[in-house]
Amino acid sequence: MAVNSSGGALIGVDIAETYVHVELFDLGLNVLARAEEDVRAGESLPEQVVGHVATAVGSVVMQAGIEGARVLGVGVSVPGQVDRATGTSEYAPNWDWHDVPLLDLLTEHIAYPLYLDNPLRASAVAELWFGAARGRGNAVVVNLGTGVGAGLVLGGGLHRGVSNSAGEWGHTTMVLDGRLCRCGNHGCVETYVGARGIMLNLREVGPDSALLHPDDQTATIDALARGVAADDPVARRAVHETARYLGAGVADLVNLFNPEIVVLSSWVARTLGEPLLHEVREAVARHALPRPLAATEIVLSPIPTDPVCLGAATFALEGALQAVGQRNGKRTTPAKSTPRARSRTTAPPS
């Protein structure tokens, strides 16, 4: 059945290494307001990040002009491994966080119900409900940003693993004794296809290139995209090298999970766009086994808004529905983030 979209509001929070992006949605998961806070180099203390989140959440509520009582929940996505039950960021290698009680810290500033997860799960749910994986039983959503990982949809539902740690593909080994990763290992996928890895690829093919902004990931990726569009040979070579690594890694995912679709998501994939996708498809074809490859489509995310915010908002929606069931004295089970679960809460998007 359909719900009254105006009957409440949900908030999705995308915490990343260089920004905090927040979106406020109605119950039909239509965006009503957006806010973004830049996270500068050195602003890695939990209290600093929490401050950015609180400011952005306050901003979207004010922009939307809604009463606080109408906010049913806030879904918060933070990179790394999280414990959903305790609201703890167990390990975030980008900031070297260990066992940070993130939801407790946020509760000091935000009065709404809070739900914690990570961007791999959030982006996978967004694609499953509203994006390229909708109607698919098996999908892999590759998150390409500063960090890298893979959200997994297996057997029609979100796959979390035993400890909610599934999908840490960015920290599998791409090159033995390769580049040092922030996790402490060498040669991780992330060090070759994440934003920092792409900057290293660019430095290797064009050490003196004006496209490289050493202290600014976003500016570098933007410059690469413009360079490719202008047929700059250094930009094209850097994207080609990145796609070689990414294609080999995606081929591993195709061989392992035999998905119907692989979705390239997050800001790096969105910025580099079709040129990256074309190169990745060619590289995957060189490395994947023919049978699983023939069954797999590789696409860019079609979601026009921030997929992580959208997915995080669905976690808040799930939590709100469970809370209603508990208040009514009924035993509830998690919605499991599947299209079938969605049909109990909101009509499929047209």
TrEMBL record:
PROSITE patterns noted in UniProt: ROK
Domain of life: Bacteria
Pfam families with a match to the protein in the record: ROK
Gene3D superfamilies according to UniProt: 3.30.420.40
Residues covered by region (Disordered): 325-350
PANTHER family per record: BIFUNCTIONAL UDP-N-ACETYLGLUCOSAMINE 2-EPIMERASE_N-ACETYLMANNOSAMINE KINASE (PTHR18964:SF149), ROK (REPRESSOR, ORF, KINASE) FAMILY (PTHR18964)
Protein family: Belongs to the ROK (NagC/XylR) family.
The name this protein goes by in its record: Putative Xylose repressor
